[in-house]
Write a structure and sequence with these properties.
The complex is a heterodimer of chains A (108) and B (642). Chain A is mainly α and 108 residues long. Chain A has a single domain, classed as Orthogonal Bundle (Helix Hairpins). Chain A contains three helices and no strands. The longest helix of chain A is centred in the C-terminal third of the chain and has 31 residues. The radius of gyration of chain A is 18 Å and the shape is elongated. With 642 residues, chain B is mainly α. Chain B has a two-stranded antiparallel sheet with strand order 1-2. In chain B, a hairpin with a 2-residue loop joins β1 and β2. Chain B is globular and about 110 Å long. The N and C termini of chain B lie far apart (80 Å). The chains are: A mainly alpha (108), B mainly alpha (642). The interface between A and B is medium-sized, with 13 and 11 residues.
Chain lengths: 108, 642
């Protein structure tokens, strides 16, 4: 499929809108939530919003590079979350809580 | 004879002496230093004699420049390390190395007991090096290098015994007053460079002689300003009013220093500089009149002060200032060869007098007050004989050297105007007065010191008396260097200069008939003889001596206190400058400079305190800032796309 019909074009806006909303929700989550696990979930949400956008444009332009890049992003996200969760477990062992406020040792 | 190879050795030898003695002097020991110090000067003297042969024989023409090294090449300014050997520089070189050598030998004896023996000779050698650079330099820049060098060595030697704070103050005074003069000299040199484009002596003389080339017109303001500035420089170095008060204070240094620097060489640098620049002075009759006026004032005022002093070296110091005034009178009248002749004879007899005074001081174990001397001719025969010759030469008695040079200048004064003639004879009378007063009070009459001092009186060692004798011989026969025509001579120095065109506007031969000249000589001699008798009666027959400090009255008090000039300078110059520097310190230093530095420090600290608040430990805040940053980057990247 090379190009989309007029309705698909209209729908591209929908994809963009959806991705932006998801991304914003992710950001707000990162900035406001205190639970570290929820923080990770918000980061994942942001990553996936970007993935969605990449795929949408890739289909729109007919360029498979976008979709290939999505695979890379997913791999990186997986690796990142692994390490993130490992750090979380160590943090819990050291501070006994999974609240972001417990990581305040670098205060002046 | 390849002169190029030996000319550079002349200043190099004393410099080498300085380096060796200053680095290894203490390890080498006094004997070795006492050989190297005078030895290098003797070597330089021999080389100068070789060059003299060349100049007299004509192989160096009117003056040859020996270039060694291109030092500064900046646009129009080209200065090389180059030495000009012509009759004037050769003459000065003979005086410097010859008398310098004698004084070095004398110092071996005089400074023998001093622990800083090596440092003394290091400074002396460095001084000779600087003085040689001064007179040999082929441009104003090299001359200025030597000029500053001798100023520095003078500072080091006056304050040689640095543990006494008074001596350090005297050294500082000498240096600062020299510096004030140097400012005038520098400004003069700069103006010369701006208007003539060159600083080389021969090029300047050539440019001035060719009116089409130079922008300096006879009697014009520019030339007058340049020559006045040069004269300011000369008065700093050669102790004319108002920059003369450093010279009597400079007597704080060891006596050989007074003899070498403040009688024979450094103070004549000003005279040399003006003779060297005679092409410029020939264009400025206004400056010459000013020089004449200042010189006459200097001569008479310092002679009157000399009459009242009680320290043997102070009398000689004021006598030096007076004789320098006489040299400048000759310069003011345009009689350059007479000035140089008087420089030469003065170097002979004044060095002789200072070294003789040193011998007296040495014999009396550092007693310098003439009230504690007297009758020394029985105890110090050689010193007495040579000192007597020195006094006769200094006051200008026929046939000693001083007579010829002084009376030649007085002859020129009489020729110029009757007013100057009167001044001339006043000067003769005054110089006879202070000279004979010193002679009678130190060597005649009864010894007025303590019994302890009397028992220790002994003649000085050979290393001190031999230079005295050599200088005495020179003071006796020195007149032959410029024996006047009236007495059957050939005015050698004057003709020497004329043959080689050193002076571009030489004065015509003196216009008097021989009988008039004889009459002038007779008047001068009569004045001196009368004064000698009067002073003898006053000081010896009637036993009037100088009174205790503070007991003088009236005119004597004013003279002894040197017309309160030092006090006036302290109130008018030194105090305001001190006040100014205190103000500058309080405001500029403490408030402005310290304020800026402290402000910078405090700004950094306060900034740090503010930035520190960013470290809140709140991870959410960090994430927030990160997000804002990324948005900002994206935003600024997108709007800058052009």
């Amino acid at each position: 499929m090379n190009s989309l019909s007029l309705e698909s074009l209209y729908s591209l806006n929908g994809y963009i809108l959806l991705a932006s909303i998801l991304f914003s929700i992710g950001i707000i989550g990162v900035l406001t939530r205190k639970n570290i696990i929820v923080l990770f979930m918000s980061i994942e949400l942001m990553l996936n919003a970007v993935n969605l956008l990449l795929v949408a444009f890739s289909v729109h332009h007919g360029d498979p590079n976008g979709q290939v890049f999505v695979f890379f992003v997913m791999a990186v996200a997986a690796a990142e979350i692994t390490i993130g969760l490992a750090i979380l477990v160590m943090t819990y062992r050291n501070t006994g809580s999974i609240s972001l406020d417990s990581l305040n040792k670098l205060k002046w | 004879m390849e002169y190029q190879n030996i000319v550079w050795l002349i200043p190099a030898l004393p410099l080498l002496g300085f380096i060796i003695i200053s680095l290894f002097g203490d390890k080498l020991g006094k004997t070795m230093v006492g050989l190297i110090g005078p030895g290098v000067i003797l070597g330089a003297f021999i080389l100068v004699c070789l060059l003299l042969g060349g100049v007299l024989g004509g192989s160096l023409g009117d003056g040859q420049v020996f270039t060694y090294f291109n030092w500064i090449a900046a646009g129009k300014l080209n200065i090389s390390i180059a030495f000009l050997i012509d009759p004037l520089s050769i003459w000065m070189l003979m005086i410097i190395t010859g008398i310098g050598f004698l004084i070095h030998v004398y110092s071996v004896g005089y400074m023998h007991d001093d622990e800083a023996f090596a440092r003394f000779f290091a400074y002396l050698n460095l001084f000779i090096f600087s003085m040689l650079m001064l007179v040999m330099g082929s441009s104003y820049v090299l001359m200025f290098l030597g000029w500053e060098g001798v100023g520095f060595c003078s500072y080091g030697l006056i304050g040689f015994w640095y543990k006494k704070q008074d001596y350090n103050a005297a050294a500082q005074k000498a240096f600062v007053m020299n510096r004030i003069g140097d400012l005038g000299l520098l400004l003069g040199i700069l103006l010369i460079f701006i208007h003539l484009g060159t600083l080389d002596f021969q090029e300047i003389t050539a440019a001035v002689k060719d009116p089409s080339q130079s922008s300096l017109k006879y009697g014009a303001g520019l030339v007058t300003v340049i020559t006045l500035l040069l004269f300011v420089g000369a008065s700093g170095k050669s102790a004319q009013i108002p920059l003369y008060t450093w010279l009597p204070d400079a007597m704080a240094g060891p006596t050989p220093v007074s003899a070498l620097i403040h009688a024979a060489t450094m103070v004549t640098a000003g005279v040399y500089m003006i003779i060297r620049s005679n092409a410029l002075f020939a264009l400025a009759p206004c400056t010459q009149s000013i020089i004449l006026g200042v010189a006459i004032a200097t001569t008479i005022i310092s002679a009157t002060i000399a009459i009242s002093q009680k320290d043997i070296k102070k009398v000689l110091a004021y006598s030096t200032v007076s004789h320098l005034g006489i040299m400048f009178i000759a310069l003011g009248l345009g009689s350059y060869s007479s000035a140089l002749f008087h420089v030469t004879t003065h170097a002979f007899f004044k060095a002789l007098l200072f070294l003789g005074a040193g011998s007296v001081i040495h014999a009396l174990h550092h007693e310098q007050d003439i009230r504690n001397m007297g009758g020394l001719r029985k105890y110090l025969p050689i010193t007495f004989a040579t000192f007597l010759i020195g006094i006769l030469a200094a006051s200008g008695v026929f046939p000693f050297a001083g007579f010829f040079s002084k009376d030649e200048i007085i002859g020129r004064m009489v020729e110029a105007s009757p007013v100057l003639a009167v001044f001339g004879y006043i000067i003769t009378a005054l110089s006879a007065l202070y000279s004979f007063r010193l002679l009678w009070l130190v060597f005649f009459g009864e010894f007025r010191g303590t019994e302890h001092q009397r028992s220790h009186l002994h003649e000085s060692p050979l290393s001190m008396t031999i230079p005295l004798m050599v200088l005495a011989v020179l003071a006796v026969v020195g007149g032959i260097l410029n024996f006047p025509h009236a007495l059957g001579g050939h005015s050698l120095l004057e003709h020497f200069f004329e043959e080689h065109h050193i002076i571009i506007k030489p004065l015509a031969a003196i216009s008097f008939s021989h009988s008039t000249e004889y009459a002038l000589y007779a008047v001068a001699t009569a004045i001196i003889v009368i004064i000698a008798f009067i002073t003898y009666r006053f000081y010896i027959t009637k036993k009037n001596g100088p009174v205790a400090d503070g007991a003088e009255t009236g005119l004597a008090k004013i003279l002894y206190n040197k017309y309160y000039v030092d006090e006036i300078y302290a109130a008018v110059v030194v105090k305001p400058v001190d006040w100014l520097s205190v103000q500058v310190h309080k405001i500029l230093e403490l408030k402005v400079v310290d304020g800026i530095v402290n402000l910078t420090a405090r700004g950094t600290t306060e900034g740090g305190k503010a930035l520190r608040l960013l470290q809140s430990g709140n991870v959410s805040f960090y994430l927030f800032v990160m997000v804002i940053g990324i948005i900002a980057i994206l935003f600024f990247n997108s709007i800058n796309l052009k």
